[in-house]
Structure formats: C-alpha cells, structure tokens
Amino acid sequence: MAAPKRGRSASAQSKPGRSLALILIAIVALTGGMFLSGNKTPRLGIDLAGGTSITLKAKADQGSAVNKANMDTAVDIMNRRVNGLGVSEAEVQTQGTDNIIVNIPKGTNSKEAQQQVGTTAKLYFRPVLASEPSGGAAQSPSPSATPSGSSSPQPSTSPSASSSPKEKASSSSTASPTASATSQGRAVTDALKAGSTPTPSTSASGSTKPSSTPSATPSASSSAGTAAAKLQAQYAALDCSKPAERAKVGGASKPGEPTVACGQIRKVWYKYVLGPAAVDGTEVKKAQAVFDTQGASGWQVQMTFSNSGAKKFADITGQLAKNQSPQNEFGIVLDGEVVSSPFVQGAITGGQAEISGSFTQQDAQSLANMLSYGALPLSFQEQSVTTVTAALGGEQLHAGLLAGAIGLALVVIYLVAYYRGLSVVAMASLLVSAILTYVIMSLLGPAIGFALNLPAVCGAIVAIGITADSFIVFFERIRDEIREGRSLRPAVERAWPRARRTILVSDFVSFLAAAVLFIVTVGKVQGFAFTLGLTTLLDVVVVFLFTKPLMTLLARRKFFANGHKWSGLDPKSLGAKPPLRRTRRPAGPATGSVDPKEA
User: Fold this and answer.
1) Residue 159 has what pLDDT?
2) How far is CA 37 from the centre of its chain?
3) Residues in contact with 171: Cβ distance below 8 Å, sequence separation at least 6, in sequence order
4) 298 contacts 278 by C-beta, under 8 angstroms
5) Which of 152, 161, 208 minimizes the C-alpha distance to 327?
6) Is cis: bond before 155, omega within 30 of 0?
7) In angstroms, how far is the first alpha carbon of the chain from the final one?
8) How many Cβ atoms are within 10 Å of 96's Cβ, its own excluded?
9) Which of 104, 102, 100, 74 shows the shortest CA–CA distance to 89?
10) C-alpha–C-alpha distance, residues 275 and 421, integer Å
11) How many other CB atoms are there within 10 angstroms of residue 132's CB atom?
C-alpha cells in the first residue's frame, strides 16, 4: 500500500510547472484585459485625484418636515443613486440638522452624479394640452410609448411601436395632424374650465375635436376661465431656451393642477401646457435602461407599474388615444421638467411600458436610475459647489509610498540576510502578488467603481507583511524538516501540509477582520478593508500556485539540494542531525571455538 502513495506523491512533485503555467496565463490574461479596456492605472479617490464637494440645504416640502429620519433617508437614496452610476468612494453625509455634504471624486460619470445627487426625482404622467418648440428652434421628433410585448394587430387600438415625429401626417396615416395654435388654445381653455383631460366629441360633419363639459356653477366657470387665461398668457410668454425662465415653471405646481413646463427633446427645447397629473411616479415599481436590438428605437427605459398604477396608466392612455395631436401625448414630468412626451394610439394595458425615441445610453440610464431608487423625501437647494484639489492627497500619497518603500526594503534586507538564497523565492512571490494586485485594482475601477484612496494604499502596504509572513512560515517548516535529517526534496513535500494549514488559518483571520471592517464602516475606511481583503485572497493564490511550485523546482537544483552555504538551507548551519543509518554489530566468536592465546 505504501508504494502507490509514493508514486502519486512523486507524480505530484514532478508537475509543479502546471501551477506556474496557470498563474502565468492568469497574469497575461488580466494584463491584456487591462490594456484592452484602456484602464492602465487604478481609479483614484477624491483625496488623491481631486473632485467636487457639494453642500445641499434641505427645505421642507409638501407634507415633509426636515427631521433626522427624512435626512437619513435622503442620504441613503443619494448614496444608491451615485453607486448606481458607478461612482465609488463618493461620500454622502449629513452636517448639522439640515445640510448634506456630498464629495464626488473625478472620474467616469462624476458629472452625472453631481446632477442627480440632489434631484428630487418626483415623477408625474400628465396629459399634454398644448406644445410647440420654444426659442425659435426647428421642430424635432418626439418619442413614443409602447407596451412591453404588445402583439395587437390593430394599429388604431395599440400604441405606436416606433418613434414618430410630432408632424407625421405626410409619412403615416395613423398619426393625427398637429393642431393649430387657435385650436390648442380652445382645447386648453375647455380643459381648464372642465378641470379634466380633454375628451373627443364628434361634430355634425363627423370630425373629431376636443371638448369637455363646463362646470355647473357660473362662479366656478369664471374662476376656471381666469386661471385658463393666466396659464395661456404664461405659456405664450414662456421662452424655454432661457435657463432663468425654465427655473420659474413646472416645479412649483401641485400634481392636481394644470401647469406649464419646458422639456428638451433631441437638443430642442419645447414648451408645454400640461393637465393635472394622471399617474404618480411612485406607481412605477421598476425601471431599467435597455437597448432595442430588434428595432430602430435605440435606448429605451422599460417601466413596470404597480396594480393601481397599471389601471390608471391604461385609463389615461385610452383617453389620450382618442384625441388629436398634441393632445394624444402625455408628458413624463420629472421635477417639473418634461423629459419625454410620447404619443399613444391606444390604451397601454398590462402594467408595462417603454419610453423610447430620444434617449442616448447615458440619458436612459440616468432616468432609469432615478426612477428605480425613488424620490427624495425633501427638496434640496444647492448652497455651494467646491472643487477639491489633489495637492494635499498627493503629498500624503508620496509620504505613504515612501514609507511603503522603506518597509519593503527592510523586509528584503531581512530576507537576504536570514534566508539568503530563499530570499529569491520570497521576492519573486512578492513581485507576482504586486502585479496581480495592481492589475486587478485597475480592472475593478470600471467594473465595480473601486477607487484607490489613502486608506486603501495603507491596506496594500500592510499586505506586504501578511504576504511575507506566509513565506516565512513555509521556509521555517522546510528548515525544521532539514534539521530532522531529511534531504531537501522530501523536506519540501513534508513541510508543505503543515505550513499550508498555518497559512490558511492566518489568512482566514485577516480576511475575516477585513470583511467585518468593511461591513461596519463607511467611506474611506471601507477602502482600507477592501484592499486588505483583496490582498489576503491574493496571498493564498500566490503561495499555492507560485511559491510552493517554485520551491519544488528549486529543490531539484544542486545549489539548494546540496545545501550550499548561500542557499539558506545548509544543514550544518541549521544544526541538522546526521541521517539515521542501520549498522551491524560485529559477529562474536563461534560456540565451541578455541581462543588462539589459550592454544
């Protein structure tokens, strides 16, 4: 039974090249991925790369008070929004009772995060009563809304499946011509007097035009007429190409009241008169950005409504489909601005819808991100935006790297002085670990938003000691076996199981500490914990796939196998016991023989 075991052991010892080839392939693949992705350096945090610091002041909204619960909720939503855009190492924290400080490092999507972080993200679906380009720009296509997975064969009763321009009478027989300004004005007045969305009525000639039933009391009708006249005057004077005028409209209106608003569709500003909100954005259960690979719609935002929201959405789209353009459109109003105004040709049922027609990938992901993570419980006013330079962080990084270099040099000096030839194995293993750490950090930047900050650099420096400790454990086990009188090759194989257990237990404790630290802390300290955990895992990989196989190969070389005094494995200097050998006792005189002296 012993012979087969020795055969398997010898076979395992004879193929350490497989492990070395595996880790070499992994290094080449990861390095190639790093260069192909264009991310040749790790992303840096705000303390090393600089960035933007934003101060937001909370103000009480309708039905919401500025208190600790609402402030904590706002911080949590802002954190999730920023992380949803892939901006890691962003810090969102309260200051005082009504201020929130947001620190966003430079890098991918940092500008989008700055725009979204304080956005209230209150969404309403409002019927469009009138719309036209604002600021003298040419008219531009508007998007369409379609149900997900709709298969209705009736174009007149199903929503449009493609993006259509607002004026499409010349290219499609299903789209209604744009109403004139006069008819739009009458429709707005009628709708405001009725206090509802315009509904179609058929004239004697058979044509369809918007109409509504006026209020029963003359005083209510007079009040509605005054409101309609005021709203029309505001609409006529509105120039959405001017930021100052855009800031005055849309956001202050109540959901149950008509309003005017602005919206930019394909870089063209439009102004709108919108009816009362028909569906609240809180009825949207899920929103995600997807690319339409089957058609020409491009990027879309797919929405799934709640049960009550699905019914409301089906009702409003069913009503709008009976109207002429632009009153067959609904405005998707986000924080008072129309982000899309798709038209419909039939009721959208089933609780699922797509917004398409004017989105880039960035626009679609931005809108879906805000809808998915919900609205802030409070409104925020931007108090200040400060650019943070990386000068101080750069000095600290320089000092930290200098300390790391000094520590590494001391480790190398100790290894050379004490382990001599074995120090080559240790330094080669440290080099492999450093390459893997650098490449993986570079790849994790765009993958999960990891950003290297000063605490993370400290974690990497601490990892030098953890990695060196694993080598020392292995080397000392080998030396113990040599002191017992064994030659190098069996000493390496016998020392490995004992060293392996010690290394795994030690690394498990380090990783557990890093994991707990990452969970219970926030901000920059998480960078230290993440780096410490990553380098601990890489230590296990390097020791198993590089250090042990390399030591097995070197044990076959005469320099190490014969115990050269500079190999670090000299039996004499280690105080090795002489090998045990079986000796024979000299044979005694035969029984009955005669002593020559006596003879």
Assistant:
1) 35
2) 17
3) 165
4) no
5) 208
6) no
7) 56
8) 10
9) 104
10) 83
11) 16
Q: How many C-beta neighbours within 10 Å does residue 92 have?
A: 24
The strand pairing partners of 355, in sequence order, are: 145, 301
| Gap between the Cα atoms of 153 and 150, Å rounded | 9
Instruction: Tell the residue number behind the tokens 């390496």, with chain if given.
Output: 492
- Cβ atoms 138, 267 nearer than 8 A: no
Beta strands in 456-555 (DSSP E): none
- Give every residue of the chain whose pLDDT is below 70, as ranges: 1-14, 61-64, 80-81, 83-89, 107-121, 135-225, 250-253, 295-297, 357-358, 370-371, 373-375, 390-393, 522-523, 577-599
pLDDT score at 84: 58
| CA–CA–CA angle 88, 91, 94 (5° rounding) | 155
Secondary structure of residue 361 in the 3-state scheme? helix
Question: Three-class SS of residue 488?
Answer: helix
pLDDT attached to residue 85:
57
Question: Would the CA dihedral through 148, 151, 154, 157 be positive or negative?
Answer: negative
H or E stretch including 337? Answer: strand 337-340
The H or E element that residue 458 is part of is helix 454-483
**Residue with tokens 């398409």, as numbered in its chain:** 356
Please report the pLDDT score of residue 210 as a whole number: 40
**pTM exceeds 0.85 for this model:** no
The Cα–Cα gap between 135 and 358 comes to 20
Report CA-CA distances (Å) from 208 to 201, 324, 437: 6, 8, 70
- pLDDT for the residue 6: 46
Question: Are 167 and 176 within 8 A, CB to CB?
Answer: no
- Beta carbons of 140 and 133 less than 8 angstroms apart: yes
Contacts 24+ apart (CB under 8 A), 582-591: none
Residue type, position 275, single letter: G
Dist CA 379 CA 57 (whole Å): 8
* C-beta of residue 129 within 8 angstroms of C-beta of residue 198: yes
Distance CA 276, CA 279 (A): 9
Q: How many CB atoms lie within 10 A of CB 185?
A: 18
Quote the pLDDT of residue 440. 92
**Residue 273 near residue 129, CB atoms below 8 Å:** yes
Residue 151 pLDDT: 30
Radius of gyration of the chain (CA): 37
